[in-house]
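Thread amino acids onto this structure.
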């Protein structure tokens, strides 16, 4: 008895990209699941027009019964990126979580389509080595545990690019992929990542081919450029005085940041599955947004609140990276981040120059910064003698310990 008859799968919704892997997955699913119907789902989260061009026909040519392309760009930035941005999350101190935030919205929309068309199963093209399998399947489980999950990379015998190309060739399925592809890339509105090739050795320096969006900082304009970012309750709402949607705010800042070489990182990160991997990530607009928000927090949040926000950001980075978007823990952390962000409103002017972004002007109606108190000049609002009593109480335990030691 075949596996298909055992499972009784009749319709599968596949997270489809149009690339080599998912093009091979469609016929493989039909062959191994008793010629079941495969519905291709494509999420438009801001990847290049080239990636989306002709994607529906590609899916049909590979054997899909239909292909749905869903525009998730605004929802992705507003409901997934902005909440994480409020928390200040940076995975391992560097990574702005571009792929990590994208997977749950893709999987969520995939589940919604599967329920709509009456599918029995969900499938994805993530490998058994990476984090994305956890992110996809964690979302599937949280939203539709009754649907079967199929992960071909954990089942099939195809283990190389050559094998995938041969598999499609034998079946007369056209593909634009070739053996010349060196790097693995993931792109959305927030970032683009590059892995593989020369990056597989940590001793190799990244070269020009490892960077796609951003100018080389050394070749960026010799004159700095200023940009004004407007923020309301922890969310970017305008650029240079113009009110824009979250997605369009990001687009505007991506263009400016890329021009000045902003947002490049070369990182070796710890994957959830236990291995280390290296990637070059470009997040120009996101890096500017992060700098603007952190700059505004400096004048608005008190010391304890800022410390708490840092702790929230650290916890959020692991929760999002680990694919627990729909877990109660993420919602709880988010509630704390939203609470702190309520007062984070104002304007920040940032200087962009050769790969660096610096917040140089900050203003807010909620600012706790007081020139009267902070001045090094003469003032009549602060009594220096009050500090003595504060220090005596603050160091009381040290005083008691020292007196006991003397006895």
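Threaded sequence (407 positions):
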């Amino acid at each position: 008895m075949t596996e298909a008859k055992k499972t009784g799968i009749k319709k599968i919704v596949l997270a489809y990209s149009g690339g080599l892997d998912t093009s091979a997955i469609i016929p493989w699913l039909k062959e191994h699941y008793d010629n079941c119907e495969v519905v291709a789902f494509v999420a438009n989260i801001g990847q290049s027009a080239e990636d989306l061009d002709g994607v529906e026909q590609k899916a049909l040519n590979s054997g899909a019964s239909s292909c749905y392309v869903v525009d998730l760009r605004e929802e992705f930035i507003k409901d997934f990126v902005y909440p994480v941005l409020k928390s200040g999350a940076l995975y391992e101190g560097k990574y702005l979580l571009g792929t990590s935030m994208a997977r749950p919205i893709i999987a969520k929309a995939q589940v919604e389509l599967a329920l709509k068309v009456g599918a029995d199963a969900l499938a994805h093209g993530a490998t058994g080595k990476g984090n994305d399998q956890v992110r996809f399947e964690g979302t599937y489980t949280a939203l539709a545990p009754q649907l079967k999950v199929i992960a071909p990379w954990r089942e099939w015998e195809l283990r190389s690019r050559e094998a995938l190309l041969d598999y499609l060739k034998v079946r007369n399925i056209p593909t634009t992929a070739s053996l010349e592809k060196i790097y693995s890339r993931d792109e959305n509105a927030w970032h683009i990542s590059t892995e593989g090739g020369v990056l597989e050795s940590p001793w190799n320096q990244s070269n020009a081919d490892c960077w796609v969006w951003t100018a080389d900082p050394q070749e960026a304009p010799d004159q700095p450029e200023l940009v004004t970012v407007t923020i309301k309750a922890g969310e970017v709402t305008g650029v240079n005085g113009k009110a824009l949607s979250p997605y369009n705010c990001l687009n505007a800042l991506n263009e400016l940041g890329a021009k000045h070489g902003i947002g490049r990182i070369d990182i070796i990160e710890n994957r959830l599955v236990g291995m280390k991997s290296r990637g070059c990530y470009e997040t120009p607009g996101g890096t500017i947004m992060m700098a603007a928000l952190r700059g505004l927090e400096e004048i608005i949040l008190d010391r304890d609140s800022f410390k708490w926000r840092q702790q929230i950001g650290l916890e959020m980075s692991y929760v999002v990276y680990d694919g627990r978007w729909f877990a109660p823990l993420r919602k709880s952390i988010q509630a704390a981040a939203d609470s702190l962000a309520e007062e984070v409103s104002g304007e920040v002017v940032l200087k962009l120059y050769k790969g660096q972004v610096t917040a140089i002007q900050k203003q807010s109606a909620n600012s706790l910064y007081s020139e009267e108190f902070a001045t090094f000049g003469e003032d009549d609002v602060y009594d220096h003698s009050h500090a003595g009593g504060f220090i005596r109480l603050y160091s009381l335990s040290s005083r008691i310990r020292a007196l006991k030691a003397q006895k």
